[in-house]
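Before relying on records like the one below, remember that each one covers exactly one chain. Contacts with other chains, cofactors or solvent are not represented anywhere in the record.
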Amino acid sequence: MKCPYCGHLENRVVDSRLNKDYTITRRRRLCDSCGRRFTTYERLEVTMPMLIKKDGRREAWDRHKVVEGLKKACEKRPVSIEMIDEFVDEMEREFQDMGEREIQVELVGERVMAGLKELDEVAYVRFASVYRQFKDLSEFMDELKSMLAGQEKGS
């Protein structure tokens, strides 16, 4: 593993821990050259379905892209990075369990919206406004009204 500070390739593991699902190994490493510590994560590489975009193009699953979109929606909200990672882990397991080689990108967007509605309603509205590409304020208000109506039914 290359040291992110000095680029040296020799280092040693000083601590290893598994996450609560036993799917990711977090390793603290010590660079033999500069003596600085850094963290690496190991996760099982799995095959995710290809995404079929709205225009018909195929695109590989990109976890980083999903996480970054969620981080942007949850910016300045009480949603931790760990909560986002757990949500994306769960979503990836669901898509793998489907057993499909390709899935529509809309399925991913709808799944993200459903999860955000549970995590943080403000983040949900932020994501929905970009994902659904509201053309005007009335479309945005319709989405808010439907969300509030759903809340009243659940109460």
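Residues 50-154 form one domain.
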